[in-house]
Description:
Blueprint: H1 18-31, E1 40-41, H2 43-50, H3 54-66, E2 70-72, E3 78-80, H4 85-109, H5 112-127, H6 131-147, H7 152-164, H8 166-175, H9 179-195, H10 199-209, H11 212-222
Antiparallel strand pairs: 1-3, 2-3
Helix pairs in contact: 1-3, 1-6, 2-3, 4-10, 5-6, 5-9, 6-7, 6-8, 8-11, 9-10
Amino acid sequence: xxxGEGIRLSASAPRLSAVDLVLDVxxxxxxxxxxxxxxxxxxTDIATQLNVSTTPVREAMRDLASEGxxxxxxxxxxxxxxxDWDEMVEMVEIRQALEALAINRAMENITDDELxxxxxxxxxxxxxxxxxxxxDKNTRFHCIFHRATHTRRLVNVLVALEEGGGVFVAQAQxxxxxxxxxxxxxxFELLDAFANRDNETALRIQEGHVSLPLEAYExxxxx
Length: 223
């Protein structure tokens, strides 16, 4: 395929830097499945197709590698990673082990402005149909709560897990299209729990929420 073919960039959005443009196009194509696992990403080819120099492509590919979406070989050629669902099992186990601490810390510190920003994203997610954009907004939604813990190391771990799980969230939507609305509904339930300062309900919702991609995979594998 041609890199960037069919990728939607909002004309009303602020002008992206060259690095952000390349990153947005490649990440979206990977999450949408337009660049499947095993696809080779050659810097010069991408630079030509997106009309940029190889420098922003190189930087964007480093970012994608740090997110776990691609690997870089000795020649700096990117290879799109095949989703490893055993890795997702580990990520869910770690997330669920940390959720009680994270929910308690976030509940203590989250502000009304942060909850308003999260609700705006939740509303957008309930209407969004573009997988790449949905995954990006979903990550931003959850990172509001992660950062509200005000615990630096915990934030770093949770944000890394959230970003690393993006490819599984995207793949799960392909496996089970109904998953998107279920996740969107749980976003509002989580917001209501925080608004009511209901730690127990928030924890129950979030512990189940993080396992949704894995449920979709296991359900399809059982069919």
